[in-house]
Amino acid sequence: MTERSVSSSVEVSVDRDTAFAVFTDELGCWWRQGPINFFDSTRAVGRRLEPGVGGRLLEVYDDGEDLELARITAWEPGARLVWASQLDDVETEVTFRPSPGGTTVEVTATIADGGVDRGGTAWVRVTPAWLAHWMSRRDVVAHVPERLARLAVAVRYRDPGAGARWLRDVAGLEPAGAIPEPGDEVGHETWIELRCGDAAVIVLGAEGRGVAAGDAATPWCFVDDLDAHHARVVAAGGRVVVEPWRHGTYAYAVADPEGTVWTFAQATPAQRRGATVPSR
Predict the structure, then answer these.
(1) pLDDT the model gives residue 159
(2) Does 113 lie in the same domain as 13?
(3) What is the residue-wise DSSP string for 102-145?
């Protein structure tokens, strides 16, 4: 076996020093909020990089018990950044090169020989879209993590890539990550996220937790206390079709009297009523 690498790049219209500073200092702003964009979205308020070799890459939680994702092994402002994951066997290198339009930011994730990837390569997939999105807005919006609405909609397609492209190209929704193009492999457990204002639209495969092909859409509602909500539904005789599960988010599904499946998920710290959660 040999080590494996995947990479991606994006051009941003700023100089290398600015691009490096935005990537590192404003990570909490450009790392997008979302149900599965954190290891534990029920507690996460953002992500943060501690500067310099030996600094930590952290998933920041509202209770102060942050999760260390990686340790920085190279810190060259304006040129290069490398970190080694503490959760899997992925090393990530980010380079900043001059380009005609400003700076090309390239992200390369390398999985060690015989190693495993438990999410370390995600930076390759999300950085081009998320960093470019933030770069286009950072001069006109507050430098705080975005806040999502408490209602989202999951839509199911037999060809989720085609469905997502229609939502992007025809309906004009804003991608919150990479959208598969024709010919790209899209697995059964795909999750493609777009935005309509501050609300998430989640594109899924034809079948999934508690939902069969033919169910066109399932609402997602984010509640302050999922366990209390689940207990209330059970006590009221609600038909729970999927018991609480965790995959970044914490959620369960219940069918209404006419069979529509509703997913209820634990609200993130920023989504909770009256929340004024800063990025630490």
Answers:
(1) 84
(2) yes
(3) EEEEEEEEEEPTT---SSTTHHHHHHHHHHHHHHHHTTTS-SS-
